[in-house]
Write a structure and sequence with these properties.
heterodimer, A: mainly beta, 0% helix, B: 122 residues, mainly beta, four-stranded antiparallel β-sheet
């Protein structure tokens, strides 16, 4: 099962907005509203930020939002803050036997 | 506080075995599916294996199928990963993670442990 495709890196200045894309196929992102996004600052465990495409777990700031169009899901972070600097991973339910696939990760740099 | 604590990692020679454990607390363990996810040094996340709340449904990544066995003991609030025939490419930080949905095998992880490191080398 191939990983979902994410850009290796994105960057933005404090206060700006950035969007991270996550491209899959009709076997995963395109067919299921079960896309999740995880934040992983350096040296820490992943943290769930978005589930079911656009839902935020309790405690996640509303600066984080998710969406999906066709085979591509997106995570948008508005009002960038220095603490948002981290690696971000998407995942999706898939019809393959493994049932879940991750993206390769995107490093967000806050300039 | 919901918490997952992994243990059992270490340095092991290729071809040998290792058993990871994950102790859960702060939630009703037997209501949730559980997962193992690994991260090789400098690499991304890779789902390794998952198990439903009652062990009735189990899955593995193709890369570990036939070599790794996941299990759980709901009486002990514990998750396990028995790893055999270990290879250099199994070297990674192994995370234990809780599924988000009560009673379902949903493949979305809302709580993660800090991980335990497995290094496979001669």
């Amino acid at each position: 099962q191939s990983a979902l495709t994410q850009p290796p890196s994105v960057s933005g200045s404090p206060g700006q907005s950035v969007t991270i894309s996550c491209t899959g196929t009709s076997s995963d992102v395109g067919s299921y509203n079960r896309v999740s996004w995880y934040q992983q600052p350096p040296g820490t465990a992943p943290k769930l930020m978005i589930y079911e495409v656009s839902n935020r777990p309790s405690g996640v700031p509303d600066r984080f939002s998710g969406s999906k169009s066709g085979n591509t899901a997106s995570l948008t972070i508005s009002g960038l803050q220095a603490e948002d600097e981290a690696d971000y991973y998407c995942s999706s339910y898939t019809s393959s036997s493994t049932h879940v696939v991750f993206g390769g990760g995107t490093k967000l740099t806050v300039l | 506080e919901v918490q997952l604590v992994e243990s059992g990692g270490g340095l092991v020679q290729p071809g040998r075995s290792l058993r990871l454990s994950c102790a859960a607390s702060g939630f009703t363990f037997d209501d949730y599916a559980m997962h193992w996810v690994r991260q090789a040094p400098g690499k991304g996340l890779e789902w390794v294996s998952g198990i439903s709340w009652n062990s009735g449904s189990i899955g593995y990544a193709d890369s570990v199928k036939g070599r790794f066995t996941i299990s759980r003991d709901n009486a002990k609030n514990s998750l396990y990963l028995q790893m055999s025939s270990l290879r250099a490419e199994d070297t990674a930080l192994y995370y234990c993670a809780k599924d988000i949905k009560n009673g379902l095998y949903y493949y979305c992880m809302d709580v993660w442990g800090k991980g335990t490191t497995v290094a496979v080398s001669s």
